[in-house]
Amino acid sequence: MTETEILSILREFLWGAAIMATPLLASALLVGLVVGLLQALTAIQEMTLTFVPKLAVMLFVFFITAGFMARMAINLFDNIVIPVIAGP
Questions:
Q1: What are phi and psi of 43, to 5 degrees?
Q2: How far apart are CA 65 and CA 74, in angstroms?
Q3: Fewer beta carbons below 10 Å: N end or C end of the chain?
């Protein structure tokens, strides 16, 4: 296995991880913005007020997108790892 093939495999896995993490990160960003806006408007500065809604929404989004993430991980494994293990 050459250096180019190894870097290509690593790039594929990193892109797959980024795509799988996008729904969770986007939901955390949106909830953080909404909660931050509410805190700025009401002058309530409570730390748990930012943490609990983010956690709840991220769990909800994770359960919705878990099938997509699992299919993507399986596809990455089937398309990249299995051919590498099987060899030429």
A1: 60, 25
A2: 14
A3: C
pLDDT truncated to tens, each residue of the chain (88 aa)? 788 888 888 898 899 999 999 999 999 999 999 998 988 888 888 877 888 999 999 999 999 999 999 999 998 888 776 666 766 6
CA dist 11 and 9 (Å) reads 5
Q: Is 69 helix (H, G, I), strand (E, B) or coil?
A: helix
